[in-house]
Amino acid sequence: MLIEKNFSDNSDNISVGIANISSKTKNLEENKKQIIKALNLFSEKKANLVIFPECCLTGYFWEHEKDCRTYMEKNSLDNLTDWIDIIVKSYVNETLQYIVFNGLIKNSVDTKKFFNISFVLDQTGTYFDKDRTYKKTFLPKLEKKYLLSGINDTLVLKTAWGKFGFLTCYDICFPKLIQKLVKKEKVDGLIVNAAWRKQGEREYKGPEIKEDAYYKYLWDLILPTLAFQNRVWVMAANAVGPHSIAGVEYCGGSGIWAPSGINILKGSNTKEELLILHNIDMIRELKAERNNNE
Fold it and tell me: Residue 66: which CATH number?
């Protein structure tokens, strides 16, 4: 399903596509097909920047470590360069200039660990260079079995429409990392790739309050706060639907938040959708919000 809005009538402004999709664990080929289907539509609709969720090619980790590790090693980005080259040749052009993916790449020093990287496909052809990738910094407990942190790593994408910094999933909870992008790198927006789950329980028996979807609550709370507190655009692609092995469910809710914190476009919490916001006047809105804050 496609959800499409116009921010303005000025086609010189950026159009952003976001994939609110489910990645099938243990089914790389099905995930590739889904990505290509999405790219076909984003390309047809003349998006300039497209963002996919965390682990969009492989699906997310699961608890059977040996089984999971074997699958992830076989399907790490190191083994998918030919397919990625085809994607670049087929879709990257003067209109669709940037495609943001996330996946795993092997660590040459500690062969038992991967890095979780977000990277940009564009016309430079240098998408795995050190200064073209972002290694996820903050790792939940399960991920520490498989991943090393990219401590102090930063990626800033400079475009004709503004500068964008990168965060991956759990990173959005840590202000110092975000402040580095906003205060030091002077980014205009944050690009977030996530596989953020819905479940999580919190209960307060005295006032009889119980929250069964605590992590979804946090997702819905943090993203507009990121935008508002830092006066930046936030563009987030999150997985949606169930993990086929672990039984957890991802909360979707991908979208775009203005520097005011107000949501402009948001995806379903349960269904796969492709989102496009056309002709976003990013810099004008940034200036307006920052002037209002002075």
Answer: 3.60.110.10
